[in-house]
Write a structure and sequence with these properties.
The protein is mainly beta. About 10% of the residues lie in helices and about 45% in strands. The strands form 3 sheets. Strands 8, 9, 10, 11, 12, 13, 14, 15 and 16 form a 9-stranded antiparallel β-sheet that branches. It is globular. The N terminus is likely disordered.
């Protein structure tokens, strides 16, 4: 059973994710598909998947972003071992689809997991799949986002942490012409140290705007709470609290067939975060 292998961190992600997404086991029956289990569905990605969730053959999994530096994208370390399966519905182009997030374990030469995001039709036939693993722990992050009167977008979340920092990575993804299309990715960095807590929170504002795809504004709020005076921090000088926001708006380009960000986006925040690593 897959659930018993979920790490404490992944269980925490599941708890934070809410009710729209749900975990299943390989041997769980698929509702509305008599005689079919989720293992049968996953075999569209891992054709030789065995009863224990292992396999040595994986179909091509394009990465969600262009790395742009000549390095090959993360590839699954064989044999793969399915550690979790998460499913969630999504509506696009007036149709109902199912998305499935399958953690295949570590990547060769990368400190991330390979995580297949699959798009399935009403018959659970595989339409498209990409690798959305940006870190070690991965999950859907509901709720789904309404981006037109007929379309929703989903959010994936990846993270890892150390003694005082948590690194978060998000993927905002829509369905277009029966394929997965990445709108953009986002990164956050949280800190906790003596008497201080700094947290970055991603939110979206998508006001309805008639026909077609609506503008999407993504905002990351960077907030540091006032220091706790009860903490004994030796010679460390307390830092005052603050709150800053960074935003980017995406508008649909009909000629390009995708969302386009305005200006420099969230680059100022990412430059600031890089100096904090």
């Amino acid at each position: 059973m897959i659930r018993k292998f979920l790490t404490t961190g992944l269980l925490l992600l599941a708890a934070l994710s809410g009710a729209r997404a749900g975990y299943v086991d390989l041997d769980d029956p698929v509702a509305g598909h008599p005689g079919e289990s989720w293992a049968d569905v996953v075999r569209a990605i891992v054709p030789d998947l065995d009863a224990d969730g292992a396999g040595n053959t994986v179909i091509d999994l394009p990465y969600l972003v262009d790395l742009g530096d000549g390095d090959p994208p993360p590839q699954p370390q064989l044999p793969v071992s399915v550690s979790s399966i998460e499913v969630a519905p999504i509506k696009a182009e007036g149709r109902s689809f199912t998305t499935m997030l399958v953690d295949l374990g570590g990547a060769d030469g990368w400190a991330v997991n390979v995580v297949a995001l699959a798009l399935l039709d009403e018959d659970l036939k595989l339409l498209d799949v990409i690798n959305v693993g940006q870190d070690k722990l991965n999950a859907f992050r509901p709720p789904l986002l309404q981006i037109s009167d007929k379309d929703e977008a989903l959010l994936t979340y990846s993270e890892h942490g150390n003694s005082n920092q948590v690194y978060g990575a998000y993927g905002l993804i829509m369905v277009r012409d029966g394929k997965l299309q990445v709108i953009d990715t986002f990164a956050t960095l949280d800190d906790r140290w003596c008497g201080h807590e700094r947290k970055q929170t991603l939110t979206f504002d998508i006001p309805p705007a008639g026909a077609g795809f609506w503008p999407i504004t993504a905002t990351i709020t960077d907030r540091q709470a006032e220091p706790d005076p009860a903490e004994e921090c030796g010679d460390e000088v307390p830092q005052p609290g603050f709150e800053n926001t960074y935003s980017v708006t995406y508008n649909w380009s009909a000629s390009m067939g995708l969302y386009v960000a305005d200006g420099e986006g969230l680059a100022p925040l990412y430059e600031l975060n890089e100096s904090r690593y």
